[in-house]
Every structure is written in C-alpha cells, then in structure tokens.
Model the fold of this input.
Amino acid sequence: MNNSKKIILHIVTRIGILILLLGLVFLFWHFTYDPHKFCDENGHKHVDGGLGFFIILFLITQMFYLGLLIEMIYLFVKKQRILAFANLGFLIISLCIVSICMFLIN
Done:
C-alpha cells in the first residue's frame, strides 16, 4: 500500500509541474498579448500570437518530457525501478493521448 501512495504522489507531482508550467505560459500570454499592437489609424493589422503561443507550449512540453526521460534513467540507476516505471507509464500514456487527439483533429 505504501508503494501505491508513493507512485500516485510521484505522478500527481509530475502532472502538477506540467500544468503549472503550461498555466504560467498561458497567463503570461493572456496578459501581455495585444493583437492590435501594430494597428495605425488607417489600417487594422493583426499579429498572429496563437502560433507563437503554440510553439512555446510545444517547446515547454518537449523539455518536460526530456526531463522526465532523464529522471527515469536516473531512477533506474538509483535502483528505484517502481518510480522509473511510473515515469515510463506516464510518458507512454500521455503520448498516446496526444496521438489520439491529433488523429481526431485531422
């Protein structure tokens, strides 16, 4: 029973870190993005902030997954195989969810 609590706490912490990172980027974008930044009195020119937002979120998730992979290797070396397999399971499940969403979008 103690191992399951340890695994659940480990996974919830990793999910919380990812949500915190993505939430901070969203809040920064929401409060600093101005689509009318380059508008003048004669023209109405919008800038595409959604693409930059997507690229930054993509890079943050890639760095998060790279950190998760490095942590998984570190946990295997430290002989904490249960937490390493929990990281591996989280990595596989989240990538499957992303793949399914991408398939459904197209």
